[in-house]
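Hi P.,

Sorry for the delay on this. The queue was packed all week, but I finally got your sequence through. Input first:
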Amino acid sequence: MKFILLFFLSFIFEFADSSIGMGYGTSLTPILILIGFPPSQIVPCILLSEFITGILSGFFHHKFGNVNFDFRRDEKIVLRRLSGLGYVPRSEDAKVSFLLIIFGVIGAIFSVILALNIPKKFVNLYISIMVTGIGIYILINLKKKIAFKKNIFLFVAFLSGFNKGISAGGYGPLVTGGQIISGRSAKSSIGSTSLAEGIICFVSFLIYIFLEKKIDFKLALPLLLGASLSTPFSALVVKKIEEKKMKIFIGILIIILGVLNIFKLLNI
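Then the structure:
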């Protein structure tokens, strides 16, 4: 019975996450705690399922045309500043995901180094205010065509990884909304977020296993199955929804999440 419940919960929350680029870990973790699982048991299972579903979600978003992932090496290397990395993917969506992964991992490493010196509550409050501002900016500029802003995009990519490392959550709202205000489409932002978050979760999962060396497969298996089966349906939904409606929904949802987190941090 518990297997079916976990399967159903992971299906629903991953469907939402792969459809709007956020919400799986943040929503599912407190429910699993209420069911009776300890956080130390939940975290590696969430990371493993987010890794697998991130890859699957990226695959189906590509298959249904929401993004164009071409990770073959770009021999022309138009972006000279990136040539120093030694590898640059060919398509724009693949370049964005590649940079999200690199700057996300760098941000996560910095967060581990600085975690002892920066109050976690202060960082989370700053991120929550920023997420709320991003949601407002998206709604205000719905009719405006936003040119791609590379510096904003790189800052958001770094900050998202930093936030993931220091608080284990909040990656989706920041990086999905941040891509939109950087000038990317909502559908491309969701597809790139899913894939990049999957890779970053894989790195976090390896570190966790290296330190703890154990995972509860009785919890991991239903989460993995339920979440994985939802990914083609969510990618298909994203394909069907109009871009403007997608931005409105994401903007409103990001504002709600940001405000709720501010209230929670300030004990209001």
